[in-house]
Amino acid sequence: MGLGRTEGRSMVDRGKRRDLVTFIATDKDWVAICHDQLSGTWAYLTGRLKVRGDQGIARKLGEMFP
Question: Which residues in 8-18 are b (16+ Cβ under 10 Å) and which e?
């Protein structure tokens, strides 16, 4: 699944493109992060969220998708 932002709009697709960053978490943890029930930072620090790829983009995810 890909996440993108174009002209101020967020989008999700299954397009074939090079991944800049990959987030790895259980379904339960990912949903909790998306619903602000689990801090992404805390999940990362405790090993519940793993990040592969561009760490700079990963840190800006909250700004890109508020």
Answer: eeeeeeeeeee
Instruction: Give the domain CATH number at 15.
Output: 3.30.1050.10
What is the pLDDT confidence band of residue 43, given thresholds at 50, 70 and 90? Answer: very high
**20 Cβ contact partners less than 8 Å away, ≥ 6 residues apart:** 53, 54, 57
The residue with tokens 């995810």 is 61
Whether residue 15 contacts residue 2, with contact meaning beta carbons closer than 8 Å, is answered with yes
Q: Is the pLDDT of residue 29 over 70?
A: yes
pLDDT of residue 21: 84
What single-letter DSSP state applies at residue 63?
Answer: H
Q: Can you give the pTM of this predicted structure?
A: 0.67
Question: How many domains is the chain partitioned into structurally?
Answer: 1
